[in-house]
Amino acid sequence: MDRNAGTSERFFLTADVALNARDGDVIGSQVTSPLDLEFAEPTSVDGTWPASSGAAWTVDGMVAPQISVMSAGASTLGPGSGPALAFDFKLPGNGYQGDALNGIQIVNQGDATPADLSELRLWQDGGNGTFDSGTGDDTDLGALVLQGSAWQSLSMSIPLSASGTRFFVSLVVSPTFTDSALVSLQLPLNGVIGVHGSGVRTVRPSALPSKR
Q: What residue ranges define each of the domains in the chain, with the CATH number in brackets?
């Protein structure tokens, strides 16, 4: 671009943080030396090098796009039915490193009440990618306990691989169900506990309508 002598031009450099960035990674930029600059006309370059604005950001936390949510499909369940797959998701480790899950919270965005549910239970996939309710390779991580509006488990230490570890939440319908009640599970803000990072933004899975 052409500019008159004595004038200046401001430039902005933007960047997108990769989803596999690790907590604690620092992101910044600088121009290392005058040799990194090219001009259309012979130009004398002076200054202190490297040239930097001093701006740097530290990666911290987990965001929803890092979590893979697989569809649990739609099911019509009757009284006492289950365990049926209600939520299917994969949690990554700490960016490109492994990590550990120490607790999780699940909320229901449907209109089913706690009285409509006999149980929500968390499972870890054994590797075949199929929910088998304990008859195959899945590991039973225990029933989720209702605390306020969230179903949670806060006493675990599950290794998370960098590529992600898959989990299932199963549902057992109460014998005293409400007809046409809907169950639609999701991870709320700060619903993933103990992994590196301060929490997770809301993740909306495919709904599991349990029309009973």
A: 64-193 (2.60.120)
